[in-house]
Design goal:
globular, mainly beta, 136 residues
């Protein structure tokens, strides 16, 4: 595997570890509150809706729609320069949560709001797989 020069997520935090382990294993995990049933992502210590600490990790369907997006033409860091243009998007998952991600597997100009997408995992190191989405 080649060297990865872009920033990597912090995976050794107790709150986020399970999420990144899921990604490494090809699963998009969400937290779900045992009390009020709310799904959430990004990982937190407590439910953002009822503020209780009764959270379970559950498998996401991995399916969603593009809620919003932007095409990046000017990289934020030198390490991203080879990737431009690329799409940064907010994807609304079937479970109702929205997450920031990249759309891959199509030309940036082909991305549309409402486009159906499916999660794919980009293994960037032996330990890290990043969730991205491709058109269905």
């Amino acid at each position: 595997m080649t060297s990865y020069s872009k920033p990597l997520p912090i995976m050794h935090d107790e709150v986020t570890r399970k999420y990144w382990e899921g990604c490494r294993n090809g699963k998009l995990l969400l937290q779900k509150c045992q009390d009020c049933g709310t799904y959430q992502t990004f990982p937190r210590n407590l439910c953002y809706k009822c503020h209780l600490q009764k959270l379970n990790w559950v498998d996401s369907s991995g399916r969603g729609t593009v809620y919003s997006f932007s095409i990046v033409y000017r990289p934020p860091m030198e390490e991203f320069a080879p990737d431009v243009p690329y799409v940064v998007a907010i994807v609304e998952l079937e479970e109702g949560v929205r997450m920031m991600t990249n759309i891959v597997g199509c030309a940036p100009d082909d991305v549309t709001i409402g486009m159906k997408v499916q999660v794919v995992f980009d293994r960037v190191t032996e330990e890290v797989a990043l969730p991205k989405f491709r058109p269905v």
